[in-house]
Amino acid sequence: MITIIQRVLEAKVVVDGQTVGxxxxxxxxxxxxxxxxxxxxxxxxxxKIVALRIFRSQDRQKHFDRDVKEIGGSVLLVSNFTIAAAxxxxxxxxxxxxxxxxxxxxxxxxxxxxxxxxxxxVETGKFxxxxxxxxxxxxxxxxxxxxxxP
Length: 150
Fold this sequence. Notes:
single chain
């Protein structure tokens, strides 16, 4: 699983003119399920996202001191298969690494549940929809997480 997380002040996802998910301070997580991912990848990713210390200290002196739970934040999870794209060769991204849609949707729902189980409020986009994501990046602070990276 590959996820790009961004520390945000606020964010929302709109589908067909309707807001389907919105958060205040917290994280936007753009997540791709890749072929071969297992539940251990989802569990690792969920634990990493919740525990990663990327928020400022209360006195704002330390940049990476608190995690999303400590700040009382939320997570906006957005399924985004294009993150799995291979772009090294050619001009057209190869999406061969992305999991098949039916598998990805099931895994993504389990991923949402895994983060919620850790006591963090989660909002989502709509799987396979044309989503418009709006966010106010805080920092900016953006990180790439890969459950299969060494």
